[in-house]
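quick q for whoever's on today - can somebody do inverse folding on this one?? i tried earlier but teh output was garbage lol. tokens:
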């Protein structure tokens, strides 16, 4: 039952490894918590070892090459100074930031794509209603015969068609939801498009600036944004019901 002493004895050769000459201070160990990538390592390390030597130790623990390590203790850890000089104490947390070469290779290509996506998103952040293509229609003002809107309320779809709205060319448009046929009818003066709900890939909407009780809404009819069919001045109380009906969420209840 003397295993604790055995453990102490096992550690003593490590304690004797010193870079600070033969004096006792060279053998003084400090307990560190090295944290990297959500992993925690308990490390005993000589106080008179340098930051560069600690990086080597971290390399042996994590596989992270010293050149790719950013080691933080109250700021960036200086490589040339000893842990004693930068006042590292028992229980100190050492944060390590960095990726192994494999991680970098694995992440590189998707990361570039992700950055492009972020840029595209930022470009889109300008409210839709300020974009030139939409201004053309919105600047005509609210149609006289548009259906009244009710703020702060979500209503089921009305039994009558939603009418009095504009489409992208500024023509009048009405929306009829034929639930029994699972179709959305988009009607203009010239013709009525009968679209199966399942063919509509997405529905997007955004409040119209200055008239937040009405939305502009698009039905995505093909694979890209170029296939959006825009409808302006949709009363806000019907927006959620339209999305749920077209995208099929109501079937899950």
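ok took a stab at it. sequence:
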């Amino acid at each position: 039952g003397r295993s604790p002493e055995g453990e102490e004895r096992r550690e003593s050769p490590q304690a004797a490894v010193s870079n600070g000459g033969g004096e006792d201070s060279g053998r003084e160990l400090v307990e560190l918590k090295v944290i990297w990538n959500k992993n925690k390592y308990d490390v005993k390390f000589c106080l008179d070892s340098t930051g560069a030597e600690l990086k080597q130790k971290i390399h042996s623990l994590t596989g992270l090459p010293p050149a790719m390590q950013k080691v933080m203790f109250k700021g960036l850890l200086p490589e040339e100074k000893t842990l004693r000089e930068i006042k590292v104490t028992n229980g100190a947390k050492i944060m390590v930031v960095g990726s192994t070469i494999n991680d970098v290779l694995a992440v590189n290509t998707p990361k570039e794509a992700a950055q492009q996506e972020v840029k595209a998103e930022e470009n889109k952040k300008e409210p839709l209603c300020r974009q030139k293509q939409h201004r053309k229609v919105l600047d005509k003002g609210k149609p006289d015969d548009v259906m009244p809107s009710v703020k702060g309320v979500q209503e089921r779809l009305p039994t009558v068609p939603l009418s009095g709205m504009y489409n992208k060319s500024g023509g009048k448009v009405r929306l009829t939801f034929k639930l029994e046929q699972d179709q959305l009818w988009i009607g203009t003066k010239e013709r009525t498009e009968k679209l199966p709900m399942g063919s509509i890939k997405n529905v997007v909407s955004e409040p119209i600036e200055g008239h937040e009780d009405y939305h502009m809404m698009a039905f995505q009819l093909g694979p890209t944004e170029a296939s959006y069919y825009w409808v302006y001045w949709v009363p806000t109380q019907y927006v959620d019901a339209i999305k749920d009906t077209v995208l099929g969420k109501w079937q899950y209840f």
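fwiw The chain has two domains: 29-103, 128-247. also The helical segments are 3-16, 51-62, 101-124, 132-138, 239-247. so keep that in mind when u check it
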